[in-house]
Amino acid sequence: MKSLILILALFFAGLCKAQTISADDKLHFGAGALISTTTYTIVYTTTKNKKKAFWYSLGASALAGLTKEVYDSGKENNKFDSGELAASTLGGLTASTTISLFVGNKKNKKTKNVALVN
After folding, report:
1. Which phi and psi angles does 114 have, rounded to 5°?
2. Sign of the C-alpha dihedral computed for residues 87, 37, 102 and 59 taken in this order
3. What is the pLDDT of residues 4-19, one digit of tens each?
4. Looking at the chain, which terminus has fewer C-beta neighbours within 10 angstroms, N or C?
5. Are 41 and 100 in contact (CB under 8 A)?
6. How would DSSP label each residue in 54-101?
């Protein structure tokens, strides 16, 4: 029984396609990360609110990906590609999460006022 399962698994493994990431998906990921980083920076410097900056930056990258795919689907011989939308959104999620981990974690250190007298 084990050998039959092994033979079937090897047979079906030969029929599978390799899952590769296309160059266009990499560009969508990078564009989503860039849009998210820019939006996070602008929102955080304006509001000093990490949650708002995270959600706005993630939403901006998802909206940009959606807008691009809707625009592309209107062209001849093109269709809506949800994989590219997911790549843009995941790029935004990666950038937003990374930035939110490192921004605003400064501890308030109390400094002592020392008078320098000559």
Report:
1. -120, 130
2. negative
3. 787 777 776 666 666 7
4. C
5. no
6. HHHHHHHHHHHHHHHHHHHHTSTT----HHHHHHHHHHHHHHHHHHHH
Phi-psi region of 111 (alpha: psi -120 to 50; beta: other; left: phi over 0): beta
- pLDDT tens for 49-81 read 999 999 999 999 999 999 999 998 888 888 888
d(CA 23, CA 55): 27
Give the integer Cα–Cα distance in Å for 28 and 73.
16
User: In terms of C-beta density within 10 A (0-12 exposed, 13-18 middle, 19 or more buried), how is residue 113 classed?
Assistant: exposed
